[in-house]
Amino acid sequence: AIYTYVDKETCIACGACGAAAPDVYDYDDEGLSYVMLDNNNGTATVPEEYEDDVYDAYEGCPTDSIKISSNAFYKAMK
Ligand code: F3S
């Protein structure tokens, strides 16, 4: 299982992640990306059928703002 969240401090609202993984990433009012699954907490397991999309988003983000781990993220880790 994998977990993901977006570092909104470095996201530049480029829009690549939502194109790569439209079922996982959406954009807030400022166009910054967040994970829909858990309101960007990084604590929800990515459904298996979306894992490849998440890896594509990870590779495509120009600012390395897409974070992926095999463990759930906790606030202290971010
Ligand atoms: Fe932001 Fe990277 Fe997505 S810059 S909009 S997290 S591809």
Automatic annotation (TrEMBL):
Annotated Gene3D superfamilies: 3.30.70.20
Superkingdom to which the source organism belongs: Bacteria
Occurrences of domain 4Fe-4S ferredoxin-type (ranges): 2-30
GO MF annotation, one: electron transfer activity
Keyword vocabulary terms for this entry: 4Fe-4S, Electron transport, Iron, Iron-sulfur, Metal-binding, Transport
Cofactor names: [4Fe-4S] cluster
Signal sequence, renumbered to the chain: none
Function: Ferredoxins are iron-sulfur proteins that transfer electrons in a wide variety of metabolic reactions.
PANTHER family hit by this protein: FERREDOXIN (PTHR39163:SF1)
Protein name in the entry: Ferredoxin
Source organism per UniProt: Oceanobacillus bengalensis
